[in-house]
Amino acid sequence: MKVMLISPPASSAVKEVLGTTGPPLGLAYLASIARLEGHDAVIVDSLAEGIDLRELKLRIRSFYPDMIGITATTSMIPDAYDVARVAKEVNPDITVLIGGPHVTFLPEETLNECKYIDIVVRGEGELIFRELLRKRDLREVRGITYRDGEIIKSNPAMPLVPNLDEIPIPAYDLLPMHLYRFGNLRFGTLITSRGCPFDCIFCSSSLQFGKKWRAHSKERVMEELRILHYEYGVGEVEFLDDTFTLDRKRAKEISREIVKEGLDISWTASSRVNTFDLETGREMKRAGAHTIYFGIESGSQKVLDLIGKGITIEQSISAVKNAKKAKLRALGSFIIGFPEETEEDIKKTIEFSKRVGVDLAQFTIATPYPGTRLWSIASKMGLLLTKDWRKYTTLDVVMKSFYLTERQIKRMLNWAYISFYLRPKMILIDLIRNRGFILRRAVPAALKFFLRKEGVKELRKEISKL
Ligand code: SF4
Question: In the β-sheet with 289-297, what is the strand arrangement from edge to edge?
Answer without folding.
Answer: 181-182, 185-190, 234-239, 266-271, 289-297, 329-336, 360-365
